[in-house]
Model the fold of this input.
Amino acid sequence: MSAVILPGAEPFLFRRGPVGCLLVHGFTAAPQEMVRLGAHLANHGCTALGVRLAGHGTNLDDLARTRWRDWLASAQDGLDLLRGLCDRVVLLGLSMGGLLSILLAEAEPPAGLVLMSTPTLVPPNRLRPLLRPASPVYRRIPKGPPDWFDPSAAAERVAYPAYPTRAMAEVADLIEIARAALPHVHAPALVIHSLNDDFVVPANAQTLMAELGSRDKRLLVVEGSNHLVTLDAQRQTVFDAALAFVRRTAGPAR
Amino acid sequence: MSLILPRGEAFLYPGGPVGCLVVHGFTGAPAEMRWFGEQLASRGYSVLGVRLFAHATQLEDMRRARPQDWLASVEDGYHLLRGLSESIVVMGLSLGGILSLHTASRLPVAGVVAMSTPYVIKSPWLRRLRPLLPALSVVVPNMAKDAPDWRDPELARDHVEYAANPVRAAATLLDVHAEMLAGLPRIRVPVLMMASHGDDTAPPAHSRSIFERLTTTDKELLLVENSGHVITRDRERQRVAEAAAAFTRRVTGWPAGSKRKARR
Done:
């Protein structure tokens, strides 16, 4: 028997200065999709911690067993650990990681909040009430075809090949729970979304901008990237914007 | 929204290039390792206390726990602590001791400290019922805990733990325990085992049995007298923490030189 966590799916910690960045990955993914962003922030003096959410980066069946509560507790663990190193913390979440960051920010205001490709709208689907009862039989939902602008980014990606049906129902609930929390979030926020995101369409970012309680909130729209803006062709634009935002809201990194 | 119980949080104390990864027990919380962790941190070690999957939130979450979830929680702590340390000594209490030995049989560590670690899960009927536990847990989700065995009753008052033993997770405990025993011969690094005569759950005979099955050439067994199961918090906590620190120093060679100089 070897390690439980898949090679490349391990959480990471780069210790630098007193400004801490918590990086939270998305549904069925792993810390790997945040590690380049984390390294960029660390290269510029920020301490960066990338959590692994429960059920992720191990085995697809583990994810089927977990609930949004478990994912939120994992993100909270990362924050609790990072607070051992840093006074000022910025939360950065991609997709479902953005939802978890919203809930963390509601409980304890961070210095800043970066929400990337984050859903706010549950796609209307009459099958949604069936997800839970159908999940013991119809256990997996296949993923769509790849839509990379930079196919080389796909090569290093660590993610499950399908969505567990049971956990999909959790994501739908989590979107609604996080959306309800938006008016109670007052931290400075940067919302990043790609025009070409066909998975979480850009209208989600409009709702996010409209309902966030923050007075200081900005929307960065990128073009030429799929849903995974931290990996695909516009990643450098995203990294630079995130770093500038961290510096502005949490102060100089060194 | 915060789901983690007050004082149930994971913790991290940055320090020098040697890391101590500390792991709490079944139905417990990082709180039972925090004082112990602080003692190691005060000697200059980097210390990370993990929160095991489904612990320190709500008892119902334990129904979903499987062996790989707890092992993954320890691995998470391992990889994060690697961000601060070149070498890691893994230390755990009870289930944490089981998971520490399990981890040491699979990942590179400098040493293991296993405290109040059970050799057999005490309840024989529980072991016999193992195949039925998943189904039984639907009807009987929780079992009452045995009376606590604190020697310092003051400590019981602020102890963070679930009030009952979840039946489905007990099956997980039995499984991970069996895997740990099977992995003992693969441990090649120094091991320190500690146990207390006052422990009703995993008395010294348990640690002795594990000790005998260890094939590593460098192993120590330290017994204390006047503590209950939670030796990291009970009467002899100072002695326990000092033994863990001395072991860490011996197996990692850090800090070199006099103890006095090493203190921050």
Summary: Chain A has a mean pLDDT of 96. Chain A has one domain: 12-250. The interface with chain B takes residues 1-5, 10-15, 49, 51-52, 54-55, 58-59, 62, 65-67, 69-70, 72-73, 76-77, 80-82, 84-85, 103, 106-108, 177, 181 of chain A (CB under 8 Å).
